[in-house]
Each structure stands twice: as C-alpha cells, then as structure tokens.
C-alpha cells in the first residue's frame, strides 16, 4: 500500500478540477453548505434536489457519489455526512474522510480533494480539522495484504489528497495540522501492520529488528537487554513468563531527546506490554479466537510507533519508550500456577494464573522505568478481558494516581477520538490480591478484574505520576468502520501522540 500524499491548497469548489471532490454536509438542514451551493449552481440544483428527496441526509458516515456529467470542472462529487451540527466533533471529519477514501478507491481513481467547510471552522480550529482529515483518509485507506497472493488485477492505490480552502491565511494552520495528522496516522498504520503479522513471524527477535529500524530512521538511542542481562538485574517476573517458550525474551529501551528539550528535564516514559503471542501458558486459553492473541503486543507496538512519531514531529521533549517482550507458551519449563517469582523491585508474586502474564512483565518494566525518575509514566496494555466486559469496544480503561495527569490524558483522548473512561483505583481492592506465601498474587478473583490488575501495577511505580491504559476493549475490531479496519485497530496510538503534542506544542 502506497503512502498517501496530503497537502493544502488555496482554491474554490466550483473552480477546481478533481477526479472526486468531497463536499461535507451537516444533517438536518435543507440548505446546502456554502461550498456545495456554489458548485450546485453549475449543476442546475441537482444536489439540492437530492437532499429534498431524502437521497442524502448528511448523517454521520453517509456518503453519496454524484457524477457531474461534464457540468462542473470536477468529474465526480462525493457528498459526505458530518451528522448534526450541534453534536459536531473533530472525529466527524475523520469518519467522513475514512468513508470518502473507501468510495474513492471503489471509483478506481488515484487522487481526490476535499473542501474545508468555512462555516464550521468558526466553531472548530482549522488545524484540528486538517489533522483529522489527514488521519481519516490514511487510516480509512488501510489494507493489510502482505500474505495475499496476487489475483490478477492490480488494485488501485489512492496516492494524493488535496485539502482546499478559499482563505490563503489558513494555509499555515492547515499545513501544520496535516503534518501532525500524517505522522500520527502513519504511526497507527505501523501498529496495525506489526499486529497483523502472525506470531511465527513477529517474534521477540523480530520486534528487536523493528525497533532497530525505528531507531535508525529516527536517530533515537536504542538499548536491548538480553536474557542474561535480565537475569543479572533480577527481572524474575518477565523471565518467568518467557520460560515456556523457545523464543528468548527481549527488553527494549528507546530514548529520544528533542533538540529544544530543556537539559535535565525528566522524561516522559511510555511502557507497552509486548506479548508476541499469548496462549495463556499452563492456564491455557480456550481455542476460540486464540488467533487474536497475535495482537497481545499492541501496547508495545504503540509505544514504539509513538517514539517514531515524536521524532518525525521533532517534539521538544525527552521521551523514553520501554518494551518488555516475550511469548507466553506452555511447555516443560513453563511457569506453573503456584510458582513464586521475585520481581525487579524485590517484591514477590505468587502466580495463581499464568494467563495473567501481562501484569507480570509490566511489573518489571515499570520498576525499571522508575529509574529514570520520570515526569510522567504511562503504561498501555491489552491487559484484561474484564475491560471488555466493563467497557465494551468504544472506551479505553484509565487508571492513575495523579488527577491533573488523568485530566490531560482524558482531554487528549477527546481530541484524538480515542476516549478513555476512568475506573477506581481504591486500596480496598488489594484485599483480593493478598497472598498467604508472597507479597501479593497476580490475580484477584472474578470481581473487579480490571481494577485489581491496575492495582497490582500500581505497586511498582513508586511515587511517579502514573497512568495505566487498558486497551483490551479497543485493540481489535470485529467489523470494519469508517477509519477502523477489521482486526487490529491501533487504538491508543493517536491518544499517546496527542498527549505528547498537547504537552509540548501550542
């Protein structure tokens, strides 16, 4: 799949020639948006008639392709709905462009254009709209075809998107929005690609190769701890999880220091769960849908992709990304229920369920992260099935020990269209984790499973301002949506990048 080139340009809808021109329309009004009305005059009122007949209503996710029959400079018009104006959010533009590019691809053309709706821009910053449009187009165009045999006909690649504005003064803001949107969307594409590869390909060793590629491209520092290094450090939890696999574990650290970052500033540290395949170990998972466990590395893929995006955007900050990498397999050497492991922090854990392995590898990674004395510590993980039960598929579970930080993450999620929902982190729940033989157990029973998992992690972060994001509810989609594919979604990536953007850039 070729990369889409996105750029901003001054122009008016009625004057521009395009293979497909996208016109954005809100729901509920009988009047056409200003940009659509101008071109409708060339069409003799054809668009207005379509709306009056109810063939197009402007609902979010709605799209209608119209051939101009030579009456306008553009060959085809695509009416794309934004939903009701009173409910309009930035994400509507992502969805509209995600739908649009699918229709463009069906039309077998290589380029298209969209017109910025001038009236709406009075309510939403133009930079945010341009960013959302770029993201929606790139993400909506996503296809994973690495393992498909050619079937004869070569698919059409959409190569170019032009975003028009009638106001030259808006070009700098649009260009910056596009720059951010492209970097963010391409980071999400990287996550989807990594998680779509099967586990026999995307092994811990292959994850190291991918990290090396990011480090080389981005000019960031890379350090890889091997099994012997982890043994010397005392990472008993991570090593315990990896024991059942022939694949050796890896511990990857990437570090970026922006040119404008203040010397001596403590870093933002991101930690991502990177289980390249999760069978459950001795506590074996049911066979149904186990193939989805190739995406149990989503958190690690996201912090890796976020590192690349931060470097591409030249963010003025000190950023560290940590990936504890392992495969959770049954076998003669595998960790057993009842085993006790000693973590890097020195705390001991009684393993009651080997399928609660994510919190084990994260315990060592979080303890290691505290050595940086971070200004912010965020971990992200496909951690619990309980998160899916509690939140369904449209919200990321959020826990944390700092109210201001939680608010910043919440706001970033709203802007990114990857919303979080805060869950309690009350110490009373720790009663479920108490062990008769160790400092704690790795599971706390059926009730409050997402909460006890987060509370377990909290015991390894010290006094650091910390956020835990459980993405088990959002990392995989069972069906295709506007800009989400079926399968690995990469949700969480744009949230992390937006958080960094909000923290460092105006």
Can you walk through the features of this model?
The protein is α/β, with parallel strands linked by helices and 506 residues long. The protein has two domains: 5-167, Leucine Aminopeptidase, subunit E, domain 1, CATH 3.40.220.10; 185-504, Aminopeptidase (3-Layer(aba) Sandwich), CATH 3.40.630.10. Helix content is 34%, strand content 20%. The chain contains 14 helices and 20 strands. Strands 7, 8, 9, 10, 11, 14, 15, 16 and 18 form a nine-stranded mixed β-sheet that branches. Strands 1-6-5-2-4-3 form a six-stranded mixed β-sheet, covered by helices on one side. Strands 12-13-17 form a three-stranded mixed β-sheet. Helix 12 links the parallel strand 15 and strand 16. The model has no long low-confidence stretch (mean pLDDT 95).
- What is the CATH C-level name of the largest domain? Alpha Beta
Count of structural domains? 2
- Main sheet overview: 9 strands, mixed
Name the CATH superfamily classification of the largest domain: Zn peptidases
Q: The CATH topology of the largest domain is what?
A: Aminopeptidase
Distance between the termini: 33 Å
How much of the sequence lies in strands comes to 15-25%
> Which secondary-structure class do the elements indicate?
alpha/beta
Helicity level: 25-40%
Please report the total strand number as a whole number: 20
Please give the oligomerization state of what you see. single chain
Mean pLDDT: 95
Radius of gyration: 24 Å
The general outline is elongated
| Low-confidence blocks of residues | none
């Amino acid at each position: 799949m070729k990369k889409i080139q996105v750029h901003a340009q001054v122009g008016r809808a009625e004057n521009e020639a395009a293979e497909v021109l996208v016109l954005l329309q809100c729901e509920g009004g009988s009047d056409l948006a200003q940009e659509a009305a101008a071109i409708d005059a060339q069409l003799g009122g054809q668009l207005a008639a379509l709306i009056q007949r109810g063939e197009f209503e402007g609902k979010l996710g709605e799209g209608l392709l119209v051939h101009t029959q030579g009456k306008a400079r553009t060959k085809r018009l695509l009416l794309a709905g934004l939903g009701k104006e009173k409910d309009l959010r930035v994400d509507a533009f992502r969805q509209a462009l995600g739908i649009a590019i699918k229709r463009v691809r069906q039309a077998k053309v290589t380029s298209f254009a969209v017109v910025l709706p001038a009236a709406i821009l009075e309510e939403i910053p133009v930079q945010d709209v341009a960013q959302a449009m770029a993201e929606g187009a790139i993400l909506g165009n996503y296809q994973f075809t690495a393992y498909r045999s050619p079937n004869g006909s070569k698919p059409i690649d959409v190569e170019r998107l032009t975003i028009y504005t009638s106001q030259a003064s808006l070009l700098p803001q649009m260009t910056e929005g596009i720059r951010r949107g492209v970097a963010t969307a391409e980071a999400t594409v990287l996550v989807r690609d990594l998680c779509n590869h099967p586990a026999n390909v995307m092994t811990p060793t292959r994850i190291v190769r991918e990290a090396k590629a990011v480090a080389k491209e981005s000019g960031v520092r890379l350090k890889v701890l091997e099994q012997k290094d982890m043994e010397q450090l005392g990472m008993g939890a991570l090593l315990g999880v990896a024991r059942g696999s022939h694949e050796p574990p890896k511990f990857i650290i990437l570090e970026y220091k922006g040119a404008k970052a203040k010397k001596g500033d403590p870093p933002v540290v991101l930690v991502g769960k990177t289980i390249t395949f999760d069978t459950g170990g001795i506590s074996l998972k049911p066979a149904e849908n186990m193939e989805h466990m190739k995406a149990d590395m989503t958190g690690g893929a996201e912090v890796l992709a976020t590192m690349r995006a931060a470097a591409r955007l030249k963010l003025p900050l000190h950023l560290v990304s940590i990936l504890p990498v392992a495969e959770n397999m049954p076998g003669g050497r595998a960790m057993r229920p009842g085993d006790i492991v000693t973590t890097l922090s020195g705390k001991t854990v009684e393993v009651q369920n080997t399928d609660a392995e994510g919190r084990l590898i994260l315990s060592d990674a979080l303890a290691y992260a505290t050595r940086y004395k971070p200004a912010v510590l965020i971990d992200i993980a496909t951690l619990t099935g309980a998160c899916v039960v509690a939140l369904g598929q449209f919200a990321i579970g959020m826990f944390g020990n700092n109210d201001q930080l939680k608010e910043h993450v919440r706001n970033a999620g709203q802007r990114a269209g990857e919303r979080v929902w805060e869950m309690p982190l009350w110490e009373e729940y720790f009663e479920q984790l108490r062990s008769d033989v160790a400092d704690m157990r790795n599971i706390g029973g059926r009730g409050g499973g997402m909460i006890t998992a987060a509370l377990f992690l909290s015991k390894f972060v010290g006094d650091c301002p910390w956020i835990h994001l459980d993405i088990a509810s959002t990392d995989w989609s069972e069906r295709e949506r506007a800009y989400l594919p079926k399968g690995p979604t990469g949700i969480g990536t744009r949230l992390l990048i937006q958080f960094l953007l909000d923290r460092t850039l105006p």
